[in-house]
């Protein structure tokens, strides 16, 4: 595996965006960078964090400070996970293996997508921290269960079921005419039966006839002993129903703004969901994380950990495994600096009082 040096001048995660766009080209950029419709939610995920202000605190002892946490039976060194995303070979020849190597170098947990461009077994073999597996419930429920059994056998430590993406319309991709290049595909979905053809007058309604529903979550919960998280929860009512269906964790996510446009930012949806869950299961968040202060803000408003998507892909496109590791290291370093500056020696010390509420 070839290692690419990190370009000079990259000192923070946003610095990766422009060189990543140049490396991946406009076809891949339309896929990675685009959102649904007018991309309002895509922007809101970033602006939501920018609106929040922090309270600086001084003279707090930082002896024995750390970022460790225990999450769903795993001891993690920090609360920054790699979010699931598809087709990493679109961005780098070594694909998800390079991403996992970068995550492992920083002792970060990675959530591997069912739409990975390499076999899930080969990806898991590079993990230093028990990886999680992201699952779309397929129209063929038997194929779905077989995929779960593969993940269990490969040593995955949790299942993440994405529940918010039965269909999406991304205009930027449509304008670019995005197509996967030859040789890149969701290799772990080979052999899955295609969805049934649309019925009736509506192409949209016809296309989702075999989409997952709450009964499928209960069936999946009964079929595996792995911790089960639902990703794509944006309202308290769905969080409550997820817990009732047996979910062991909730991921507040609007799919990076890629599914339903004009949803709120995930950071704005988080507090109400955290209040509803009330500590019964862990709550995580993705969408818009670009700085260590964003991680701290999410923790302050009720998230135990965060998942990072596009920035990891930017690092992968620019410098492969080293770029992924650098992105994650930058975020952790900034988180630690923010903890010092807000007087929080541990993650448990980060509470709502960290957020400035005005005079």
Q: Strand order within the widest sheet?
A: 3-10-9-8-7-6-5-4
Count up the helices: 12
Strand count, sense and barrel status of the largest sheet are:
8 strands, parallel
What is the straight-line distance between the termini? 55 Å
Tally of strands: 10
Taking all Cα atoms into account, the compactness measure Rg is 20 Å
State the share of residues found in helices, binned by percent: 25-40%
Average per-residue pLDDT, rounded, comes to 95
| Poorly predicted regions | none
Taken as a percent bin, the fraction of beta residues is 5-15%
Please trace the helix and strand order, writing H or E for each element.
Answer: HHEEEHEHEHEHHHEHEHEHEH
* Helix-strand makeup class: alpha/beta
Q: What would the principal axes of the Cα set say about the shape? A: globular
What's the short story on this structure?
The protein is of the alpha/beta class. It has helices at residues 17-33, 40-51, 95-105, 120-124, 141-153, 171-176, 203-207, 214-223, 236-244, 266-277, 292-300, 310-341; strands spanning 69-71, 74-76, 80-82, 111-112, 132-135, 158-162, 228-233, 249-252, 283-286, 305-308.
